[in-house]
Amino acid sequence: MSADQPKAIPRPTPETQPFWDGTAAGELRVQRCLSCARHYFYPRPICPHCGASEVEWVTVSGRASLYSYVISHRPAPGFAGDGPYAIAVVELEEGVRMMTNIVGTEITPENLELDMPLRVVFEPRGDVHVPLFTPAGDR
């Protein structure tokens, strides 16, 4: 893969469009169940916790902590540049876990401490804005 190959661009679907509308507005949106009041992500019409179909989209804080990660040193399709890059699972303040990339810091184990505070940032890609996470700076 060459360094000038573009990054992958997600394609919104009717189910995910509210999420992408939020990222375009600089907001991280997830779903919340109106029956059990729990947040969840990835988008779906039924609450994975209680099975209720009464759900809503809400804007969350965008604050998270690093739950897990792997550092990739090899180029992969859809990732511009040679790496390294961090593929991570973050846990939002609201209890939701999501996969993402860590940016804004040198990608080394010394800089990626589990439970470190993170905040969301948005990277434009085509017609969408992809949520990524960067160290919050209040470590």
Task: Provide a descriptive summary of the structure in words.
The chain is mainly β and 139 residues long. The chain is 6% helix and 40% strand. It has 1 helix and 8 strands, in the order αββββββββ. The protein has one helix at 17-24; strands at 28-33, 39-40, 55-60, 63-72, 85-92, 97-102, 117-125, 128-135. The strands form 2 sheets. A 5-stranded antiparallel sheet has the order 6-5-4-7-8, covered by helices on one side. The longest helix has 8 residues, at 17-24. The protein is globular and about 45 Å long. The N and C termini lie far apart (36 Å). 19% of the residues are buried.
Explain briefly what this protein structure is.
This protein is mostly beta strands. The protein has one helix spanning 17-24, and strands spanning 28-33, 39-40, 55-60, 63-72, 85-92, 97-102, 117-125, 128-135. It has one helix and eight strands, in the order H-E-E-E-E-E-E-E-E.
Reconstruct the topology from this structure.
Layout: H1 17-24, E1 28-33, E2 39-40, E3 55-60, E4 63-72, E5 85-92, E6 97-102, E7 117-125, E8 128-135
Antiparallel strand pairs: 1-2, 1-3, 4-5, 4-7, 5-6, 7-8
Name some characteristics of this structure.
139 residues; mainly beta; five-stranded antiparallel beta sheet; three-stranded antiparallel beta sheet
Helix percentage: under 10%
In percent, how much strand structure appears in the residues?
Answer: 35-45%
Helix run count: 1
Distance between the termini: 36 Å
What is the averaged pLDDT score? 91
Query: Structural class of the secondary structure composition?
Result: mainly beta
The neighbouring-strand order within the major sheet is 6-5-4-7-8
- How many whole angstroms does the radius of gyration measure? 16 Å
Q: What would you call the quaternary organization?
A: single chain
Shape: globular
Low-confidence stretches: none
Secondary-structure element pattern, one letter each: HEEEEEEEE
What profile does the largest beta sheet have? 5 strands, antiparallel
By DSSP, the count of extended strands is 8
